[in-house]
Structure formats: C-alpha cells, structure tokens
Amino acid sequence: MPIFPSDYRPKWWLRNGHINTLYTYFYRKLSTPDYTRERWDTPDGDFIDLDFIKSQQKRLVILSHGLEGSSSSQYIIAMSNLMSQNEFDVCALNYRSCSGEMNRTKTMYHSGFTEDLHMIVSTLSKEYDEIFLIGYSLGGNMNIKYTTDAVYTLDNKIKGVISVSAPIDLAGSSKRISSWYNYQYQYNFLQTLKAKMVIKAKMHPEIIHVDDLKKVKTLIDFDEYYTGPLHGFGGAQSYYDNCNALQFLDNVTVPTLLISSEDDPFLTESCIPKEMAKKHKDIYLLATKYGGHVGFTTFGSEFYWLDHKILEFINDISQF
C-alpha cells in the first residue's frame, strides 16, 4: 500500500527525537483505567497477569507494551481509555515479570516471545468477533512476528495489527540503543533488568548465574548472557536472527500498520520498511519526520495524535 503522508506537526522544540521521547515519558499524566486483573496460568507452569476493561463489546484490542513496561505505561493507559470509550473491550498485557510480581519459571519475555500471546488470542477469540493487536516498541515486533512467522495458525478473528516504534531489525536497533548517545535509556533499562536477574538467580540458582551481571555493560551484553540463553538461543546474535520481525514482513496477511518516526533514537532506517510498504497490499506505513520513540507528544487533548491514528485505522478496517 502507499505510504501514508504524515500530518503530525509538533511544536518546534519537540522536533528532536530525545526531547519528544522524554517529554511524553515524564510529563504525560493520565488517570489509570478501571482495570480488572486476571491471572492466567500458562501451559509451562507459570502465570501471566492481564488487565481487562470489559463492557460486552464484540471487538477486542490486545495491547502489548515495550521493554520493561506494563499495563501502567502511559501509552497503554491512553489506548485503553480511548478504545474503551469507542465500543471496544480491552486486554492489556503485563509480560512475565512485569506485573509487579516475579513469575515462577526461568522464562521471562523478549521481542519474539509469542507463546503467551498465542494462548491469550486462542482463549479470547471465543468471545469476540474481531480482535486487533496493538504493540509498542518490543510489543510491536512481537505482534508482527506472531502474525507472520507461521509458528502458529493465525486465528481468523485477528483483523488487524498495529505496530508502534517497533525495532523490527533487532540487531541494528540493539546496536543503536547501546550507543553512547543513548546511555541514559540503556542505563535505566539495565537497572530493572539486572534487579530481576538477581531475584531470578535466587529462584533458579542452577540455571541463572548472578556473577554474569558483572559482564553486562550494554543491552547487547544482557541479551548475550541472559535473554538468549534463558530462551533457547545461543546468545544475542542468535536471538536477534531468530526473532526480528523484519525477515517475516513479506508474510503479512492481515492489514498491518507500522507507525514510526524518522528521529526515533532507538531505531535504524531498516525499521521503517518503505519499499516493502510500497509493494505489499496489507502493509501500511505511517512514517513521521518527528515523534521520537513512542512519543508523538500532542497538546490540548487527553489523547495524542498517535492514539487517534490507531483508532482511525482500526475503524477503517473493521467490519462493524
């Protein structure tokens, strides 16, 4: 499909990827939705916590957050509120270890971890006529991989996928976020990830070695010593090679919208697949000049430009 022209026009001082990213992260304040939490057991003996907003609608959105996010992330709260106000039920994921309580098994989550998502879709599809997957950053890569890698048969209730600021080229994005100019982001991620590994090492000392944390200076290091080995990959590069969604994009079979900004400090140019979007009938690309990483700061409204664009796309492709 043609690349959508962008009408996102931020104020002049927000025309910087770092500023737009950080302003939204620190200053966007929203009222937490009236979630109802459900804890679901997983087939491997673990659990996942899901936050729902239900009003007996026929359409459902499943929201997947980014690295070290949760259902309390500001972008998830915004979309939960907006969609529930527009005749959708909402299921906001908290990945394993992200709900406020550590999960039981050595398995946590990563950009290509689709097992829990598949269980959730398979269960909830019995209750809804249409399901839409909305993922941010890591969650955006995960959603695209889930609907394109042919590991699972795609449920015909899934009518659309929306991927925001997704690092679909995992290797390239990991190198970029490990650069010196992204030091603070990386430092913040590593603080929480390392703290989780300390807890995990106490739970599974025979598998997880806390001494390896001394070797972790970057997110690539973390993936080399922890993400990769704990999830069946040989290391960071093996994880990136197996889980990047870019390699599967040609397999898209449902309308899939990718929204990314060209000044995103986390993403490489390869994460904005303009040539693929031009030739593939089910890939829609909204590439903005400004916006940062899941930023797209907008003033004068509870909901941002980004939120409205997602709702507009879903309503355009919905059968309702």
What does the model show?
The structure is a single chain. The protein is built from ten helices and eight strands. The protein has 320 residues and is α/β, with parallel strands linked by helices. The protein has two domains: 12-169 and 248-317, Rossmann fold (3-Layer(aba) Sandwich), CATH 3.40.50; 171-243, no CATH class. α2 links the parallel β3 and β4 (89-94). The model has no long low-confidence stretch (mean pLDDT 96).
Question: Which architecture of the largest domain does the CATH hierarchy give at level 2?
Answer: 3-Layer(aba) Sandwich
Distance between the termini: 22 Å
- The total beta strand count reads 8
Determine the mean pLDDT: 96
The tally of helices reads 10
Key words describing this protein structure:
Rossmann fold; alpha/beta; eight-stranded mixed β-sheet; about 325 residues
Brief write-up:
The protein is an alpha/beta fold and 320 residues long. The chain contains ten helices and eight strands.
Write the layout of secondary structure elements.
Blueprint: H1 17-27, E1 36-41, E2 47-53, E3 59-64, H2 74-84, E4 89-94, H3 115-124, E5 130-136, H4 138-148, E6 158-164, H5 170-177, H6 183-203, H7 219-230, H8 236-243, E7 256-261, H9 274-279, E8 283-288, H10 305-317
Parallel strand pairs: 3-4, 3-5, 5-6, 6-7, 7-8
Antiparallel strand pairs: 1-2, 2-4
